[in-house]
Fold:
Amino acid sequence: MTIKISSIHFCPVKSVSYQAVDHCNIHKDIGLEGDRVFAFLKNLGADDPTLIDKEHEERKGKWNKILTLKNTPALNKYNFSYENEQLTLFKKDQSILSINSNDAEDRKKLVNKIIELESSIKDPIVLMKNNQLPYFDTTISTKVDFVNSVSLLNIESIKDFRNKTKNEIEVQRFRGLKPETDDKSLNLLKFLKDHYQHFDMGLYLVPLSSGKITKDDTIKI
Structure:
């Protein structure tokens, strides 16, 4: 069986926006380079940023510590791009602020800018960066026994789901990312359960070696 990679996306900031690329590096036991290496943390205790950043066991189940589109809808207005260690905040197509992502003071400037733009978002918030232990769902979920991962979605499965539900459901909805439409009436979990008797769409992969993948590459399994 041969699989073709039709598109590659990564999400620089956990659960906010995604970025399309034609190729990317994959790191052994980690995942796509740059994927979910940033996260906005909230509701923090004194030791939370350090513990959550360094110990994946400290993250398990702590979804309330991370800003997402679900718990912070104001972030739907914004996108991020990440290239050459520069993290840039956009509103629609307009660049608002670009920072050196390795500089803690610059990351604080980005947090302050978002708080300035959105009164509903309150301090204390910290923008964390971790290349070795990114903020994947699998580092937070209590339902899996692995840590880092790559998410794989089958386009044919998406097409079948669209046909069964009679809805043009965007792929990014399956990974909690910003959809192209503002339709909030779609209950993905209910649709999945009704039509497939489970809640899953796609696979999580664990990279066994480092390398590079390119759009239109083929994989034999």
About this structure: DSSP finds five helices and 14 strands in the chain. The CA atoms of residues 77 and 91 lie 6 Å apart.
